[in-house]
Amino acid sequence: MNQQRIWSTSETLSRDEYHAIQLKRLKDTVDRVCRDVPYYSEMIKNAGMQPGDIKDLDDLSAIPFTVKEDFRVNYPFGLFAVPKQQIVRFHASSGTTGKPTVVGYTKNDMATWTELIARLVTMAGVTDEDVAQIAFGYGLFTGAFGLHQGLEHVGASVIPMSSGNTQKQIMIMQDFGTTALISTPSYALHMAEVAMEMGVDPANDLNLKWGLFGGEGSTEAMRQEINRVWGLFATENYGMSELMGPGVSGECQALKGMHISEDHFIPEIIDPATGQVLNEGEVGELVITTITKEALPILRYRTKDITSLHYETCDCGRTTVRMAKIQGRSDDMLILGGVNVFPSQIEEVLVSSDGIGPHYQIKVFKQGYLDRIEVDVELVDAEVLDSFQLLDSLTQSIRNRLRAVLGIDAKVTLVEPRSLARFEGKAKRVIDMREEK
Ligand SMILES: [Zn+2]
């Protein structure tokens, strides 16, 4: 690995220095929310605590969790810790049902957000020499604006394309000499297909060097596929509106997990069933406390994302804690015949099979009392469909590998290239029909 740029000296502090910063900022945050956010002062009081009870970082675990539902209950501004006059930006995440989750930023919050994005795009390889094309949707969603301001801050030339209009995306890439692509991983794969149809080979005819992907989960196999078709170096970043937007964490070029900016966030891993805090390296649900946000400080937010934390110094020289690739959502976890399965585990099997593209659909249903699963997978080459022998051996090999992961038999159907649904935002690949009566 080449010597990497590190944006801020705050990314290379000692553990003791992070602890001291975190403790001071946590105390300030708890004091502030108890004073300025009635919802939190009530919550802390109901937990039998007072603001001054935070004497050590371990005392954090006595504070109750904040969950997505708390945003809905307090819609739109009930969790804000500053008057609306101090808000300079709103964003919101689309709820699948009912009201969106509303977030706000003060001027200082915007400066912090910009700084943290600058750290993550620098980690990913972007410099002031890059031309960065943002193919996230601009609007209330935090993704596009979040990356936008941080990329400008490091001096990259930003193209605010927004999502969709894929042929135009490819044309602009050619004409503007785009070197960095910012999108969801599934949209990156879709764009590559469209480029090929236009007679453009993304790896050879375009100048892409970096891919910064986020907004949805992905697998290592998907990364390999994106690297191959685009001829770029893909990194992943992580965030959510409730905590800030993108900028909570991102991968450096060592690809050993996503660095969390610990001077702004305190991460914990809990057992999703019991809420108990787990140790370094143990897999569970990520919980984050924001310690510098002015408009919307959040204590112990349950992200629902399943991961683990790793504290040893990274090969890149940064000392901030790294979170492993998200293994799934505690919500999306499928329980099949009593076994916990994440869709990402199924994807790993499919995408690592020869002749199989990155597009698939999973259907789960009940047959009598038993859980049944059907997986439709797209072939890369339609000609396989003409050879019964090839089709059969490929289907069998996928079934066997899925059985090893799932513990039950799946019905595997290989379908024609480009026959399954495509997604420009978050991919919806699992249809669970078991709840239907
Ligand atoms: Zn690193």
Number of helices: 11
Return the CATH topology of the largest domain: Rossmann fold
Question: Helix/strand/pairing class, anyone?
Answer: alpha/beta
As residue ranges, the low-confidence spans are none
Number of domains: 2
Count of individual beta strands:
21
Rg value: 22 Å
What CATH architecture of the largest domain would you give? 3-Layer(aba) Sandwich
The average pLDDT score comes to: 92
Explain this structure.
The protein has 437 residues and is α/β, with parallel strands linked by helices. The chain folds into two domains: 1-329, 3-Layer(aba) Sandwich (Rossmann fold); 334-432, GMP Synthetase, Chain A, domain 3, CATH 3.30.300. The protein contains eleven helices and 21 strands. It has a nine-stranded mixed sheet, sandwiched between helices. The protein has a four-stranded antiparallel sheet with strand order 10-11-12-15. Strand 16 (334-336) and strand 17 (339-341) form a beta hairpin. Helix 4 (107-123) packs across helix 5 (142-153) and helix 10 runs antiparallel to helix 11 (388-406). The longest helix is centred in the first third of the chain and has 22 residues, at 15-36. The radius of gyration is 22 Å and the shape is globular. Bound molecules: zinc ion. Zinc ion is lined by residues 252, 254, 256, 259, 314, 316, 318.
